[in-house]
Specification:
This protein is an alpha/beta fold. The protein has one domain. β14 and β15 form a beta hairpin. The longest helix has 18 residues. The structure holds 2-acetamido-2-deoxy-beta-D-glucopyranose (7 copies).
Length: about 475
């Protein structure tokens, strides 16, 4: 792997990848199939930039664009001249600062990151506003509960749109809510704009190198309260630098995880993706070896486990070929340092004699830090957020029914969808835009996903072959 990464041409290291929004993970169909429903894909990510001051509306927007030659364009303000910064310089810069700068016990710099992919797609029924305003809701609720972390939204504009930015009004909302927008490069062709690829884009949070820890959340995750404690415990070493959450059906949720940004890790992860794609695309159908998966067999008692306590010994869980498998592989076998939260237990994985090693299992560590009363019996952090999967997406509800609910019930009796709408209205009111922003995207019907349905194994293989044809340079040149 090391050799591979040294040989890797910089042009190829273009931040592959994006966010996943497996909606409805709970009801996913069979193992090794991708969710049928990625809804409006969302995506995104990346790069931080100088400190940002929360609560300072109207200024300090950072629009960062990753341009084709691995530089970032960085703007403090839309009127400012663009500054291009070479990625490699920025990486070494930031590592230096971190080593000299931050004493262990000081507070780290934290961010939440979201991904919105396929934005502004022209496909019928592909409105991205549900995802975009969900990020506004999440950011607003975190800050209502005194979160001090930054919020970053990675946006990838659909190849089907000629636009390069979100519409002015949406940009204004994000700006006033102090959500940093980072534009990812567009794909060069619609054939690359597929669910499988988008899911991989979320790993770009590794490039947010001005932060000590980043908590990635799918945009349909609605925090109930201040989740900063997860980032703090990771920074303080109670949890490892990588934190992964097991779910009912898989050992690693692609919708909630913490990584410690590190530019060279991002490049290494990119080359891992390329290497595994290159290896599996020549395999017989289903173009996947569930014994070795991303590159490591489960052996000598090694296992994976779901939050229900079911163990497995093969790379065969839902989403294993994309984000949910790569996350597990990357944190446990490459980094060999991860806290995997499995219901009330926390498995602490490290390494011993160069091999992955379970150091211990902690119990009850998060109990005192949990920020909500949550549903009874549910462990933190599960109880501290709601995953608005599938039909529970509030913008698939009937707006007037939700409004009726808000009018007639006390706050603590609101359903998740009603609370979401309440928070959205409260967020817009807090920035004086309540009457300007249309909520006509909240409709009583489920619409198509911007990126269509998600590919099965055959489609995944076709996509990978297309990536191979262009030498894994699947992004459009910018400008
Ligand atoms: C990188 O791209 C930017 C913007 O397109 C351009 O101004 C700059 O000269 C390029 N830098 C290199 C090293 O090619
Ligand atoms: C980034 O990760 C590399 C290993 O991939 C490590 O050598 C380096 O120390 C890390 N940098 C920082 C700032 O942690
Ligand atoms: C947030 O901070 C304010 C001011 O310190 C405090 O009054 C309030 O109770 C805090 N809110 C929460 C949810 O902790
Ligand atoms: C994008 O621009 C091309 C060329 O100008 C034009 O043919 C096409 O209709 C435009 N697409 C959209 C969605 O506006
Ligand atoms: C893909 O794998 C083949 C061998 O199977 C190797 O020759 C080739 O260099 C690899 N390509 C990349 C981009 O790694
Ligand atoms: C988590 O643990 C609690 C208490 O032991 C149990 O009631 C619950 O069913 C578990 N959750 C899952 C998803 O297994
Ligand atoms: C929402 O519900 C109201 C009342 O139940 C109904 O009149 C309206 O047609 C519904 N709207 C949509 C978009 O389904």
């Amino acid at each position: 792997m090391a050799r591979q990464w040294l040989n890797f041409r910089p042009q190829q290291l273009k931040l592959n990848g994006l966010s996943n929004n497996w909606t409805n993970r709970q009801q996913r169909p069979k193992r090794l199939r991708f969710g049928r429903e990625c809804s409006l894909v969302c995506f995104f990510v990346f790069v931080s930039l100088y400190g940002s001051v929360l609560w300072k509306h109207h200024q300090h927007v950072k629009i960062v664009q990753v341009v084709e030659n691995d530089t970032f364009e960085l703007k403090q303000n839309s009127n400012d001249p663009t500054v291009s910064v070479n990625v490699v310089d920025r990486i070494s810069d930031s590592s230096k600062k971190r080593q000299e700068g931050t004493p262990k016990n000081s507070r780290g710099k934290f961010a939440y990151a979201f991904l919105l992919g396929g934005a502004m797609s022209t496909k019928p029924g592909s409105d991205h506003r549900g995802g975009l305003f969900s990020v506004a809701v999440a950011a607003h609720n975190l800050r209502r509960h005194n979160s001090t972390a930054d919020v970053v939204l990675m946006v990838q504009i659909s190849t089907l749109s000629n636009a390069t930015r979100l519409p002015q009004q949406q940009t204004e909302v994000l700006q006033r809510l102090n959500i940093d927008v980072i534009y990812l490069p567009k794909y060069a062709d619609p054939k690359f704009e597929k669910f499988y690829n988008l899911m991989l884009e979320k790993f770009r949070i590794l490039g947010l190198i001005n932060y000590d820890r980043v908590l990635y959340l799918d945009y349909d995750v609605m925090p109930r309260c201040n989740l900063d404690y997860v980032l703090e415990l990771s920074y303080q070493g109670v949890l490892k630098e990588n934190v992964v959450l097991a779910n009912l059906l898989e050992p690693s949720s692609g919708g909630f995880f913490v990584l410690a940004p590190n530019g060279s890790d991002l490049l290494r992860l990119q080359s891992t993706i390329m290497e595994v794609e290159n290896r599996t695309m020549h395999m017989k159908f289903p173009h996947w070896d569930s014994a070795t998966g991303w590159g490591q067999a489960f052996e000598n008692g090694d296992y994976w486990i779901t939050s229900k306590g079911e163990k497995g010994y093969e790379w065969d869980w839902y989403g294993v070929q994309t984000d949910q498998g790569l996350l597990y592989y990357w944190t446990k076998y490459i980094q060999r340092s991860v806290s995997i939260i499995v219901n009330h237990s926390i498995e602490q994985w490290g390494s011993k004699d160069g091999r992955v090693w379970q150091e211990r299992i902690d119990e009850g560590v998060l109990q005192q830090r949990s920020c909500s009363a949550g549903p009874k019996g549910k462990a933190p952090p599960y109880r501290d957020f709601v995953h608005l999967t599938g039909r529970k997406k509030p913008w698939h509800s009937n707006l007037s029914t939700l409004e009726q609910g808000i009018r007639s019930k006390p706050m603590e009796k609101l359903s998740s969808e009603e609370l979401w709408l309440w928070l959205l209205k409260d967020a817009l009111a807090s920035i004086g835009m309540e009457s300007e922003v249309s909520l006509d995207f909240i409709k009583g019907e489920v619409e198509n996903a911007a990126l269509g349905t998600t590919p099965g194994n055959r489609q995944r293989n076709m996509l990978i072959k297309n990536k191979a044809k262009v030498g894994w340079n699947q992004y459009q040149h910018n400008g």
